[in-house]
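Think of the structure tokens as a kind of shorthand, similar to the way a musician reads notation: each symbol stands for something richer, in this case the local conformation of the backbone. In the example below we present two proteins back to back. Begin with the first one, reading the sequence and then the tokens, and try to describe in your own words what changes along the chain.
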Amino acid sequence: MTTLATHAATRYVQPLREGGSLPAVVDTETGGLFVVKFRGAGQGARVLVAELIVGRLAQRLGLPTPDLALIDLSPRFGRSEPDPEIQELLRRSHGLNVGLRYLDGAFNFDLAAAGDLVSAELAARIVWLDAYVTNPDRTHRNPNLMVSDRAPWLIDHGAALYAHHDWDSVDDERTRSRFPLIKSHVLLASAGDLHAADAFSVAALAGDAITDIVAAVPDALLLDAASGADDFASADAARDRYVRYLTARLAAPRAFVDEAVAAQAQVRANPPQHFKARR
């Protein structure tokens, strides 16, 4: 089993006031700077679970993703922060949180300015991943891609795997459902062969890959009762549910692939107008 590095947080550097998870740049004792998502944010621990699972799926598929780590906040961390909102967030986040390696000098991806940095093959694999994990947050308005050293990097997968917010309602039909929101994907029109991306990705996730990916999620996040993540009697039961969901979704026929292919044909046939052309 591949394990995640754990680093002790030493200094709250800078808040990143984007999105509902209130992430921040945090310095650590042994690992340097990370962008940390906190379990005490309003969206709860499930966002961190999604971040870990989808980030590790992306890495397994060879997609450019910042290094993931677990960031441990001691009860003393953040006591000197002057902002009461931040101090309260950190107080609720003692213990393990999730960090992505800070990309120094990175800037937000813009398709018009940096689209040439994403090959058609890479775009197709990113589209495939987002359809597989039901990620709604890779749109023109909110691409969740960063550019660093003239390379794209995938970030912020907390909104993916939205089925895990209500496991009781997730039957076989919902597990294997299409993902219509893929039509809004920022890379859909420029993506290459989605069937080729499908064949590559399914092969890459064969065997024990999914089990290994989910195994790295710590018990503390899977059973975080404070944020409502307490659906299961044990962490192993929770891991088993994620593995069964992801494995079933991967089985043929994959409706989410057919949906993506159809959406790609439609967006190419009817490209969106530029904002200046709209009336």
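Once you have a description of the first chain, move to the second and do the same.
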Amino acid sequence: MNTTLINNLPVKTQREIAQLISQEAKALGFDIVGFTHPEKVGFAGEHLKQFVEQELYGEMTWMVDTLARRSKPNNLWQEVNSVIMLGMNYGPTDDPLWQLEHKDNGVISVYARGHDYHDLIKKKLKALARFMVQQLPKQFEIEQDIDVKVFVDTAPVMEKPLAGAAGLGWQGKHTNLVSKQFGSWLFLGSIFTTLKLPQTAPVKDHCGSCSACLDICPTDAFIQMRQIDARKCISYLTIEYGGHIERQLRPKIGNHIYGCDDCLAACPWNKFAQTSKEAKFHARVELSMPSLSDLVMLDDTSFRDIFTASPIKRIKRRRFIRNVLIAIGNSGNMQYIEQIKILLEDEEPLIRGAAIWAAEQLMNASDFVNLHKKLAAIERDTGVIEEWQQSLKAVQLIEL
């Protein structure tokens, strides 16, 4: 049998292999596939370096630690010759923006309303990787082993620039990938391989003069197009940030309780988007417009029960209830006051601090002052003490 080394494959064979990989990927449920070279991240590595140097990453210190590997895929794995970028559509059934008007319901980012996409996509990537390793050498008489590594956004890989280079779409002004076919709703995964494969042509930027995604941001997190200050982004604040959110940002968060899709949903290219055909990405009933009143009283056990198969589970109860209390404070509805009073004595300082702010927003001044007299004197956490002081000062100013 005549065999060939993987780096000596004829161009025609490389094309045939790429076509076969694409067919198998589609059969596994991926909606779009592209191929690129690991060096094709373009200026993204330099932009990431500037982002880190300006300390726009907030508490995401892993961005500093992984800067070298993230900036250049070969630093992550020197043997990689090609990157296969794959996308799965998670388009929602309706426009997420309409939920923002329902102040007594929490808004959860579309990607987190179904099952955890990490698990589903990784299984499919591994299945495609097995196909490549086991079937391609036999079919194309390749002598050497085909090595692969699979990644879903938990690794230091710049998926969006690589996806753009592989022709899956282009990076919009909101920094996220935009597709003519799927709008802003694509989960990305990648397979790094030692195979040399033909590269897919990149897609032209079709944003034009549109600035809808920048204009809609509630917290003005965009410094300029394609540059974001994560410290002001609602997705960062409600998911990654573990402390007391800055007071001036809380009213702007509205009823977002996990992530934010405002800039994604505002993109005009979503008119071509399609509802995801993957049932596990569809919103679970309990995560579609959930009642703030129900969510705010979750204990640790009930929180884990509800979010066991959701990416929300990773922020844990204390951070989630903090978010819900901020949404309650923005609701204008005094029906929550009794629940807030209970959480003012919660064992978690982060929750007590958010409850203080929610009480400040909804209670009359005299009742709030009485609560302060009762609870502030016995508080020992410095962060919560500061919350009491700031809220009391705000209430007193209102009285004047």
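Compare your description with these statements about the second chain. The mean pLDDT is 93.
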